[in-house]
Amino acid sequence: MTGYDLVIRSRRTVTAGGEQALAVAVQDGRIAALHAYDAAPPAAEEIDLRDLALLPGMVDTHVHVNEPGRTHWEGFASATRAAAAGGVTTIVDMPLNSLPPTVSVAALAAKVRAAEGQCHVDVGFWGGAVPANVKELRALHEQGVYGFKCFLSPSGVEEFPSLTPSQLRAAMTEIAAFDGLLVVHAEDPALLTECDGPTYEQFLRSRPGAAERSAVQRVVELARETGVRAHILHVSSAECLDVLARAQADGVRITAETCPHYLTLDAEQVPEGDTAYKCCPPIRSAANRDVLWEGLAGGVLSCVVSDHSPSTPDLKVPDFAAAWGGVASLQLGLRAVWTEASRRGHGLGAVVRWMSANPAALAGLAGKGGIEPGKDADLVAFDPAVTEPVDVRRLHHKNPVTPYHGRVLKGAVLTTWLRGRPIDGTPYGHLRFGD
């Protein structure tokens, strides 16, 4: 007689309490119980990973899927296949660069129709906060978006304009009224300049760290004034960390994230003309990267998410002034972060906290982000020791352009389970909506 649907054993099961020798019992798609490695009751299916690691599925709350409207850049089918291959079991889709952007209930409905039946992992949605839609924000919240993305500087697409300081205050006031979440692309447009040439050095000068710091200061001041929950997206400049740390110590409701490319790449290694490295804000110096790691280890930065923002190869022209800005890395984030984290003495428990538990908590995804009874059985078999160079031909991104091509990364995703079922090419991901 069988007990559970599935039991997966690993001597390196990563829970909130650290790595433990455990048997994870699954029933009806959820984690039913945790047992000692050799003491689980029988199950219809039993898998023993031995010394391979068992992780919770990663939660990536910063993914530009781009469908509908720019599906030739990326789409739900290709993005979620890439996510699954990279150990990511839940993504939250950004409101741009799709057409229409997700700034109204009607636009959200169009996004949902586009996603239905295509998703290999679970998918949630951010709404957008733009100058003309303050009155739409509550309705979008009630439809289940996890929060609202805004820009303080030009977004790069005309249909998603940035907010002025007064418009930012109005959006924050409205979102605070229903205790929503505002996530902010924080660069001060007054401190950005036109990139005056094709080189990476010229591009980097055009988007200085001071522009991030100034914008973060503005968000902190308005979050303090309005009481809104605010989250700073893709922090690339270490100049922001002291501002964030002081605000957090003062009780301001503000959190922040960074991305794998800011933690693993640096400006000194960007090959001239290789615009796969171009993103906004930009990849900065190795010394800056070291301080970001300190901010992450200290908890000032709480999440590491991809900001997967792909485009077609023709938009990545070999000119840093003209090329599309965005790094494609959804399939590679876990391996990239583990490579650098392990080199710096951080364990898998820290990586899981940054890439699974904390992003799930940010978005309010209560059933995600950890291996514990009651949560979805979203699990990843991971070999932490193997090393292998990245080959773009093995990526599932629709347009496999990435700065990681040829880079040797540590770790391998062997199997990804969504609610206890191995992801096998059949799209059975759920569309998820907040309370």
Automatic annotation (TrEMBL):
GO terms for molecular function: allantoinase activity; cobalt ion binding; zinc ion binding. GO terms for cellular component: cytoplasm. Residues 54-421 form the Amidohydrolase-related domain. It is an enzyme of class 3 (hydrolase). One of its GO terms (biological process) is purine nucleobase catabolic process. It comes from the Bacteria. Pathway: Nitrogen metabolism; (S)-allantoin degradation; allantoate from (S)-allantoin: step 1/1. Its EC number is 3.5.2.5. Keywords: Hydrolase, Metal-binding, Purine metabolism, Zinc. Its cofactor is Zn(2+). The keyword Metal-binding applies. Homotetramer. Belongs to the metallo-dependent hydrolases superfamily. Allantoinase family. This is allantoinase. It comes from Nonomuraea glycinis. The lineage of its organism: Bacteria, Bacillati, Actinomycetota, Actinomycetes, Streptosporangiales. The gene is allB.
